Amino acid sequence: MLKKQCEICKREFIVANNRPKARFCSIKCKAQWQKQLPEEIRKKISNTLKNKGIKPPSRWIENPTNYSTIHKWLIKEYGKADRCENKQCNGKSKNYQYALIKGFKYERKRENFIMLCVSCHKKYDMTLKTKKQIIKNLNWYKNGKRK
Q1: Could you read off the pLDDT of 14-26 as tens digits, one per residue?
Q2: Which of 48, 116, 127, 133 could disulfide-link to 121, CB 3.0 to 4.6 Å?
Q3: What helix, strand, coil percent values describe the chain, rounded to 5?
Q4: pTM (2 d.p.)
């Protein structure tokens, strides 16, 4: 076992003998170091990874637009959802969520989302296909076909 000092946080960490070139104590420190790399180097690395069939880290993308990063961005920029914007809501819920407005894309735009209580969000996302699946599952359960 070797003792090394992390290049980012300067903490001492132990490395197995088969990893003598290790430079960071954690994935978090390595990610922090990677973010500091110039854009052109990150692009070269990304292209190399793509050629090998490996997806480059999403943290390298300036504005990643996947579900979790968009919702984290909404909460960071606008705070947690604190009300239901559905006019027909009974107003009894205390739990609220951001819901993507139908027909809009996941983008970093507040106007693409509405705040809904959990109950209204479930109803809003409910489609004919999901209703049929729920009914099918209930019938399957009632008929004793459980595993």
Answers
A1: 988 888 889 999 8
A2: 116
A3: 45, 10, 45
A4: 0.53
